[in-house]
Every structure is written in C-alpha cells, then in structure tokens.
Amino acid sequence: AAAGFYFERRDGVFADLVSAGRRAGLGVPSRLAILLHPDFGPWLSLRALLFTTRALEPTEPDPGFDPCEGCPAPCAAACPGGALDGRALSLPRCLETSARVADCTVGCAARRACVVGPTHRYDADAEAWHRRAALAHGAG
Predict the structure, then answer these.
(1) Can you tell me whether residue 136 is helix, strand or coil?
(2) What are the tens digits of pLDDT across the range 50-101?
C-alpha cells in the first residue's frame, strides 16, 4: 500500500479528498467546497489517501442527505468577503478575503455558521491550525 497526503501534488494536481470522502460514504460536497458529514457537518477533515491493491466495495452517502438544498445559507451570509454565491465557493475571492481580513487567517466564519454538526466544531487552536495549513497550500 502507499499513501498520499492532501498537500502533495500528483501530475500537478491535488487529490480530490472531497470526492473520495463522498465515494467512501462519509458525506457530500458542501457550498464551502469541503465534505459535509451527516453528524460532524463541516468539522471532519480528510488529510490522506491510502492506496491499496485490495478490492473494496464502494459505498455512497445516504442519497437523501443534501442539507444545503433548501438551506437559507447562513454560511454565505457569514462570509465577510462574499465568497459564497449560490451553491459554489469562489476560491479566488476566499483567498483574497483571507489576505485582508485577520479573522479569516485563524478560522472561517462561513464554516462556523453551518447548521450541520455545530457541536463538533474544532476548538480555536485546532481551527487556526487547520486554517493556516489550508491557506499555506492555496485552499480556502
């Protein structure tokens, strides 16, 4: 088996961990372009892939789980840079906002505003660590 980590590029491309998480049945893509777990909400982060030659059965998330559908999007309203428009995150706008709004370098107001899984929110130190790591690698 081999491993790949979220900050590694293969052929110039990062691994799509959100799609991998969806295929593993862990959740669905959210407006924030991160995985949204039914219990943990946006507070579940995948950081690596394990590659194996063993055959595994693919799983899918609950087909009825789509909490963003019909949600009034408090995440979009909470973003100080307006990086969320409809169902999609504008990564360039998110990164630009993160460069000028101090609070965005230690956390994401939009992520904190998600109504799914708020009891699993990272503490301030963990949120700041994850945010700094994401920004260092050009991710919102």
Answers:
(1) helix
(2) 778 888 787 776 778 889 988 999 999 999 999 997 678 998 999 899 889 9
Contact 77, 113 (CB under 8 A): yes
Task: Look at residues 36, 40, 3, 41 and name the one whose alpha carbon lies nearest to residue 21.
Answer: 36
* Six-digit token string for 20: 């991998």
CA distances from 5 to 25, 35, 39, 103, 125 (A): 20, 16, 24, 27, 22
pLDDT tens figures, 7-50: 566 676 677 788 888 888 889 999 998 899 999 999 988 877 77
CB-based contact 46:17 (threshold 8 Å): yes
Token digits of residue 122: 């990272």
